[in-house]
Each structure stands twice: as C-alpha cells, then as structure tokens.
Amino acid sequence: MWNTKVQEYVVEHELLDSKRLKQALEYQSTSNDFLDVLLLNSGWIDEEQLCDMYAALLKCSKWQRPLALDHTNVKQLSNINTDFLIENHLLPLEIDDKTIKLGFASPHNNDGLDYLRFIGLNIEFYALTKKDFELLSEQFNAISVEQPELVVSSDNLAMLKELALGAPTVNLVNSLINKGVKLGASDLHIEPVDGRYRARYRIDGILKEADPIPLSLQLAVISRIKILSGMDIAEKRRPQDGKIEMKAGSTDLDIRCSTLPLGFGESVVMRFLIKNAVKFDLERLGYSEDLISFINEDLKRTSGVILMTGPTGSGKTTSLYSFLNKMNKPDVKIVTLEDPVEYQLPGINQVQVNSEIGFDFSAGLRSIVRQDPDVIMVGEIRDNETAKIALQSALTGHLVFSTVHTNDAPSAYTRLMDLGIEEYLLNAGLVSIMAQRLARTLCSHCKKPLDQEESQLQFEKYGLHSLNQAQYAGLHQAVGCEHCEHTGYAGRVAFLEYLPCDNDVKRLAKDEKLLDNLYQLMADKKLRSLKQDGMLKALQGKTTIEEVMRVAG
After folding, report:
1. How many angstroms separate the CA atoms of 392 and 381, rounded?
2. What angle do CA 288, 551, 546 make, to 5 degrees?
C-alpha cells in the first residue's frame, strides 16, 4: 500500500520519467526495500524531495527552521524516554498538555510511536530531511541535560565558571562549532538581541541564522568561549581577543575569538581557520588568465611594493599568501609581519606583532629589514611610518607586499597621500595595486541558464554586448538544492581590479584630480574595474549578475 502511494506521488509530481520509474520498480521487487528509500539511495530523488513527499503523503507539515527549542520545552519532556525516541528516528520538538510535536526523517519505524501511544500522548508530525534531523538532534542533545531553573547573573562569577565547565554548556558550544565546520562557515557570531543571545554563521560571506541559544545558558556560553580562548571572564567593559586550538571531528581548527562590550551584553565573533584546508594558488582564487599573467610578471621583480586593497573579509590575506607561496623557494628569504598570523606557511618566517609591548607594524618592519630578507609582507599599512618604511625598503632592494583599506585600486594612491607619503616615493616604490572582492559562485548541481529573453534584457541593462559572447558560457541563475543548502550558491570566487603603476601613472600629477585621471587611464587601457571583472565571471557562468551587483555594484 505504501509503495503504491509513493509511486502515485512520483508520477503526479513528475519526479522520474516512465523508464526510470519502471527500472526502480523492478529493483524494488527484488530488493524488498521501500520504494522511497530505494529512490533516495539510488540518487533519483534528493532529501528535500523526499521530505516534501513524506509531508504530502502523511498530511503533515515540514518543520520550519531554525529550531525553536528552549529550556522550558526540554523540562516538559523530562518524563519521556527521549533517548529511545531519537534511536528510533523520532525527534521531540515540543510538548503541550497531551500533545507532543515530533520531527521525523523516516516513517518506517513504529517502535517509538507505540511507546508514545502507550503513555497516552497525541502526536503532531513534522517532516525533516535526514541532514536537518541530525543537526537538530545535536542541538537537542546539547541542551537536554538537566538545567538550573534560574538564569545566572553576569556578576556571579563563581556560578558562571561552574556553568561554563558543565556538560550542557560544553555540549552546546561544541555543537555550535561542529555545525559551523560542517556548513563551511568562516565565522560564528553570538550577540544580544531583544534580551536574548542569537547565533549566526557567516557562510560564503552571508550571515545565516543558527539555532537559538537557551536563555539559561547564554551567559555560560560566553564564559565558556572566554575560558577556552584565554580571556578574562570577569572583564566585560573592554574588548578582548583570544585563540582556541581544537579538533572538530578529524579537522584541526584554529579559532580567533573577539569580544566587544555592547549596551546590553557582549558580542562574540569566532573566526574559523581550518589548518591545511586552504590551498594558496592563484588559479584556485578564480583570477582570470590575463590578470594571472600580469601578477606573475610582478612577482619576478626583485624590488618594489605590491598592494592589495579591499574591506575586511575580501580575501586580501589569502591572495598575498598565494603570492608568497609562489615565490617560496630555497634561495628566497621571506619574512612576514602579521596581526595575527592566520596560517602557518612552511619555509617562511612569520612574525606576530604585539602592540601591548610596543612591537607594532612600524617597529616590526624596522627589525625585519635588518634580517636580510628578499621578500617582506606587512599585514597592513595603517600609518605614515609603516608606509614610509615599506616604500623605502622597496628602494633598497626588497619586494614588499602589503594591504590598505580602500574601495578600489586607484583610491590606494589617495590613501597613501593622506598618510603623508611624498610623490617621489609613490612613483619610485609602487609596482602595482590590486583591489579584490569575494562573491558567491553558483552551485554546479542546480544552476541553470537564463532564458533568452531575460538574458537579452540583462545584456542591454549592463552593456555586455561589447564582450565576445562566443567564449562565454552565458548568464545563469541560482536555483537551490540540497548540495548548496537551497541557496543556489556554493563556494566563492574573487573579482580583481588590477592597476599597474607604470610610466603612464607616474607621469600623472599627484593632486586633487589624480583619482579621476586614474579612472580615465584605466578605461583608456581597457583595464577592468571590479564590477567589470565580476560581469566577466557572470558571463563565464561562475556567478550571477545579482551577486556581482551585491558585491561590486
């Protein structure tokens, strides 16, 4: 009877063609598996389609994420054998009087249902994908241990420390970190909102809501993170920084932690740095071939300053590491000055600045030049002294890499001029300036081309007709599937703006008209802006026009 219902659903919703369905029915008759299970295991339908099928056939709802589970609901479930239910693929979500809400990923196990009927509970079912069931089960297990009834005051340090070391808090923090690694998040944000703490993951540059933190564990979670990262849990008036080294499953993980006092509580940001996961390679960054050839020529130089610009999180450090990795040879001495040292690069001398003892970028750079390096990387140029030493080092036979915070490549000139750098140093020292942004790439499993009419409208709106369409895959759109968490995007690609500091640039007067003159010079030389390089990536089918406009529009 069940297999017949599944077959009727598959036909009605056109999930398989007749040939595939006939083949599936033949397999099912010999294997005695349920038809729905066979379709999933064979890859003919995905988890989301299966979840929709269960909701339709069993006339129930799909559970709306994120999981709204708090301490009160957990206490109400204390008289129920929740371990037995989860073992039988039933997840208790909420209980009210005589009704329990249950999430399920498979309807093929009745032992848990028999148990609930025996103790006299009405049941409301909610369909879940297998992946969601596993993630929500982790969240449930993390907070299902008995909790204290009162929310602890932030001034009660002894109680906070005790809670921070307790199993519920340890399980919850581990669950948040493990889930972040599974989702490929770069950061975890925990911050107070409307009297509660919320957690959000940054995935491919976009913040995504995580499961809520129970009210009774909120301050304990903050204290737990502070203890792990070596911060002072009693200090709530000033920002703090720390570091956690741990394993998440089989993954070696470095976590940079930062706290910031707010009006009502503290904001905590944890940046995940997965050791050995990042490949520092120009092609992997998604740079176009013409730009890679320009960069390779710059890397052959023995002196000069190469600058990378862009906001925080635009991949500047990863790009500079890629440049250094390409130059990392036994006959080349490379020294870096960073705050902090994010990734360990074998064969490279990496120095951590420490402003508290006066060892800042300018002091560190003065020391580095006495170490007889061939190549120097300075994490960031923030002041006149660092900028001047970097450019003077280039004049004495060093190749220097660094970053500045500007919106585009030409603006780096005005930034350096604002820092008081003389024109002769700019002309003599700069080799090239690059601006970078990171945009989400289309999921290869579900992206689909724009129809001809919509594509034509986009070409006219953004003036893309001047490009040779024959060499491009064409414009595509994001769709969404289980492989990309139904966002339509998976991974990121770099947009790059490249400005060579050649004789044409050196001849320009470094006055108030410089910025306009640099923009015009780039246009005359057909050097792509960030937006134009993004449009090129869209025409290659790597991302969408919408994503280009979000990042570089």
Report:
1. 13
2. 95
List the one residue out of 297, 315, 290 whose CA is nearest residue 436.
315
DSSP string, 455-499: HHHHHHHHT-TTS-GGGS---EE----GGGTTSSEEEEEEEEEEE
- Cα(356)–Cα(351) distance, rounded to whole angstroms? 15
Q: What is the total count of domains within the chain?
A: 3
pLDDT digits (tens, 9 = 90+) for 483-524: 887 889 998 999 999 999 999 999 999 888 999 999 999 999
HSE-CB at 502 with a 13 A cutoff on CA atoms is 10
Contact 551, 438 (CB under 8 A): yes
Do 329 and 239 fall within a single domain? no
Residue 86 to residue 134: CA distance in whole angstroms? 10
| Judgement on whether residues 253 and 289 belong to the same structural domain of the protein | no
In a domain, 403, yes or no: yes
Q: Is there a single domain that holds both residue 203 and residue 57?
A: no
Torsions phi, psi for 196 (to 5 deg): -130, 165
Domain region containing 482:
283-552
Amino acid at 381: I
Which positions ≥6 away from 430 have C-beta within 8 Å?
A: 304, 305, 307, 391, 501
- What whole-number distance in Å separates Cα of residue 181 and Cα of residue 160? 27
pLDDT digits (tens, 9 = 90+) for 176-229: 998 888 888 999 999 988 767 889 999 988 898 887 787 778 888 999 999 999
Q: At what angle do helices 167-183 and 130-143 cross, to 10 degrees?
A: 160
Last residue of a domain, one of 143, 169, 195: 143
DSSP one-letter string for 39-80: HHHTTSS-HHHHHHHHHHHTT-EEPPSSP---HHHHHHTTTS
Token readout for 142 is 């993390």
